[in-house]
Design a protein that fits this description.
351 residues, alpha/beta, UDP-N-acetylmuramoyl-L-alanine:D-glutamate ligase, six-stranded parallel sheet, five-stranded mixed sheet, 16 strands, 35% helix, globular, binds adenosine-5'-triphosphate, binds magnesium ion
Length: 351
């Protein structure tokens, strides 16, 4: 049971404007180049076709997707903290984040890093459809310098007293190649220990099992692995209860185990709540679902929601964004209120 009325849901949502959050982690750039094949020119140098770009769609991804979602939900202040290269992609990334009203003072430029960028050339067909051809990736192949890490650590400690909550977006799977290096991980755990009352939620693609004293949000397979249990994408309620119990024993804080279309299992100490997913009709596009979930949960916690209530916000924000095809998508407060009404109708026994 979740004791959440429409009035309380709206009250929590309406106070997002007073919330300030830091989003710390890996900021990527997604760059779609739309190519008109009819305009292809032969390169005199190589004899190959030179693709001609007629449009661009550029947006911050990874931690940037969390920022986009927080902004759409009406969060008052969002501080982006991370590292980019001193390059054109870094400029584009900053422009995108600023469009969403983010404070980018904490997004530092490093001459020795690249701004991680996924460039996706899209062939535009006569019928208006687009076809993705070979992607070009710019990624960092070495660890962050000690100097940049030191600067980042300073930024993080400096922001703690200025925000109501913190989100960690640890996106890079290869050890030591992203912003959340082993040393940064230690700092984040220290921060969690020092501020047990502050919502501090970590999403980590490869290392969720190595965080303690912070809230964590693994998906089913990340959670099972971190708990040392078997389990793929489809897990039972009993398995979810056991995974979250083991993880919460380690972290000492709330655990959100996301279960794809089956929703979210929430553990807050002994209290375990299985929040069913809102069933959306096909077609769906699940890219960025995890980031929308984070963006729903953390401001709700900052606004005073219980662990399970905040889980509802995460669940519903993601159910809205998965319905947006070909884009990571966002959810507005109006969409959230409408979806909450639908959700209550589907699961009247839950409220
Ligand atoms: N098909 C779906 N229908 C409704 N809601 C969905 C669906 N898929 C995902 N969600 C919502 O998105 C949340 C996160 O999805 P999931 O558990 O797949 O996370 P993830 O694997 O971390 O995602 P990502 O690939 O973005 O990192 C779910 O808890 C649920 O609320
Ligand atoms: Mg995820």
């Amino acid at each position: 049971m979740v004791n959440l009325t429409a009035g309380r849901f709206a009250e929590i949502l309406d106070s997002f404007g007073d919330i300030s959050l830091a989003v710390i982690g890996d900021y990527f750039l997604d760059k779609y180049l739309i190519i008109d094949p009819d305009l292809a020119e032969l390169s005199l140098e190589t004899g190959l076709d030179a693709h001609q770009v007629v449009a661009k769609r550029i947006s911050p991804g990874a931690a940037g997707t969390v920022v986009a979602n927080l902004h759409a939900l009406g969060v008052g202040l969002i501080k982006a903290i991370g590292v980019t290269g001193c390059d054109g992609e870094g400029f584009e990334l900053r422009m995108g984040l600023q469009q969403w009203g983010a404070d980018i003072i904490g997004l530092m430029e490093d001459p020795d890093s690249f701004t991680p960028t996924y460039t996706k050339p899209m062939l535009k067909h006569c019928d208006g459809t687009e076809e993705e051809i070979n992607r070009i990736d710019i990624r960092n192949r070495g660890p962050l310098s000690k100097r940049m890490e030191d600067l980042l650590v300073k930024r993080i400690w400096a922001c703690v007293d200025e925000v109501d909550g913190i989100i960690i977006a640890d996106q890079v799977a290869e050890p030591d190649l992203g912003v959340i290096s082993p040393r940064m991980r230690e700092i984040i755990c220290q921060l969690g220990a020092k501020r047990p009352e502050m919502p501090l939620l970590v999403d980590s693609r490869a290392n969720i099992g190595q965080f303690a004293k912070v809230m964590i949000k693994p998906n089913a397979s990340e959670g099972a692995r971190a708990a040392g249990l078997e389990g793929g994408d489809a897990i039972s309620t009993d398995q979810a209860a056991e995974i979250t119990r083991r993880l919460a024993e380690r972290t000492g804080r709330i655990v959100y185990l996301t279960l794809g279309e089956n929703g979210i299992a929430v553990r807050d100490g002994e209290e375990f709540t299985d929040l069913p997913g809102y069933q959306v009709a096909e077609p769906i596009d699940i890219v960025g679902a995890g980031d929308s979930t984070t963006a729903g949960i953390v401001p709700a916690l900052c606004a005073g929601a219980s662990a399970a209530e905040a889980g509802v916000f995460g669940n519903l924000a993601a159910s809205i964004t998965v319905q947006q095809i070909g884009t990571t998508g966002t959810a507005s407060p109006q969409q959230m209120k409408a979806r909450f009404a639908q959700y209550r109708q589907c699961y009247p026994g839950m409220f």
